[in-house]
Design goal:
about 250 residues, 2 domains, mainly alpha
Length: about 250
């Protein structure tokens, strides 16, 4: 069986991802505004933002507005790899107007489901205006660069699923293709794969590390190939604390 079906699946995934990216407004993907704020800080100060305030749940529009006065990333943003790389990518473009685009929607607290007795129609946290265009906003241009990066990382995860299933069940290419299709057609995965988040880099690194591990287990691999697995584990640890789950493989 050729890899044409896999290529077709990846193209479908990329097409769906681009559709999601066009539909989801700026900063409305899960935690996107928070990641963009951290990336902006990295771009301007070349270091991680300090923790300045205690944890507080953003339960309403007023709480969200209160958060925007600070750079207070949660602890799982602490590993710097994703945000530092993202800042390097968008530094020539900039995120100067990001605070202007993060005006909280006054109706968000009243209309955000699944709260009882609320309108199901307002699902946007922020007010969106005609200024949010590629031509007028550097943040929108930077956002698209980062969303395309995320989509590419999502494609790596889909391919890793195919490769891993092929290694676990050799000689059953349809099973491998089906496993990849389950991932590529998952609406939540597609939506996440076009958001600005370190999860996409972590997913790709996890997938590559698992594929590499299974390959090494089936052959007499030289030490340098095991060292490469340790490198993937190290990159995952530098992306998010949940990369610790790969530590037994990296050791």
């Amino acid at each position: 069986m050729t890899r044409r079906p896999l290529l077709a699946l990846l193209l479908v995934f990329l097409g769906l991802g681009l559709t999601y990216a066009l539909v989801i407004p700026c900063c409305e993907s899960p935690d996107e505004w928070s990641h963009l704020s951290v990336i902006r800080y990295w771009s301007e100060h070349h270091t991680a933002p300090p923790r300045t305030i205690p944890d507080r749940r953003a339960a309403s529009g007023s709480d969200v507005a209160w958060f925007f006065s600070y750079h207070d990333p949660p602890l799982y943003y602490a590993p710097p790899l994703y945000h530092a790389l993202a800042a390097l990518l968008v530094s020539p473009i900039g995120l100067d107007d990001l605070p202007h685009l993060m005006t909280p929607s006054p109706a968000w607290a009243a209309g955000f489901p699944p709260q009882a007795d609320t309108s199901p129609f307002n699902k946007n946290i922020f007010v969106h205006t005609a200024d949010e265009t590629w031509a007028t906003s550097p943040t929108v241009r930077s956002l698209w660069v980062l969303r395309l990066l995320s989509l590419g990382l999502g494609a790596v995860t889909v391919y890793s699923t195919y490769a891993l299933a092929g290694l676990l069940w050799p000689g059953r290419p349809l099973l491998a293709l089906g496993a990849a299709a389950v991932v590529a057609s998952n609406p939540q995965f597609i939506a996440l794969s076009v958001g600005v988040t370190n999860d996409n880099l972590l997913n790709a690194l996890f997938g590559l590390a698992l594929v590499w591990t299974v390959r090494l287990m089936g052959e007499e691999a030289p030490l340098r190939r095991w060292a490469a697995l340790g490198g993937l584990t190290g990159l995952a640890l530098l992306t998010k604390p949940s990369g610790l789950l790969l530590l037994p493989l990296g050791l």
